[in-house]
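Extended Data, panel c. Modelled sequence:
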Amino acid sequence: MLKLYHEPISFNSRRVWIALLEKKLDFELIELKLDGDQFQPDFVALNPFHLIPVLVDDSFRVIESLAILDYLEAKYPTPAMLPTDPQNLAIVRMVEMVITNEFAPAISPLFMQMLGVASDESTLEEARQRLATGLSFLENLLGDYSYYGGEQLSLADIFAGTVVSVLHYFDVSLDNYPLLSAWCERLEQRPAWVETAPSARDVAASISRMKAGIAEGK
């Protein structure tokens, strides 16, 4: 059986969790507490970089959410989550890379501020501007489509949706992006999104553990 090592508030692991549910696959969910579980020998043997998610399929393990999503799509192609049209496929890949290369670095200082690690205002403002540029790009790229790359859910929606839908935690609003707002609402109505949505208790507990880890110098 497939095994997914994850943490409830991680959008990296949540996107894999959603894909598994959307594809209606049987899997075991293994939760890690990132205040030390990631350094345990059994987990280090799976991922020497101490990061989640990790997918284990019998004796084969896959790290990095992009690689995991591609693996699941290749091995379990129904329902299809990658368009075959060249332009729509390019749209999916652009969305994935913009989230990876633009959004993730921009969110980092905002997240550290949430954890109580001070950043100078110029760094925070640069992060906000970078996110604004990314949101405008995604808004225009979505256009009249219901989902990225067509009218069916794609890997891009799963990859980006887990990030865009939680930007409110960092005081980043979608008010100026009506297409993205409607897209997020569509995603959040899907059963897989409802099932994987982190509870307020999960968020508070995870943040508390991470703050304690920072205070202890972990």
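The domain at 2-79 is CATH 3.40.30.10 (Glutaredoxin). This feature is highlighted in the accompanying rendering.
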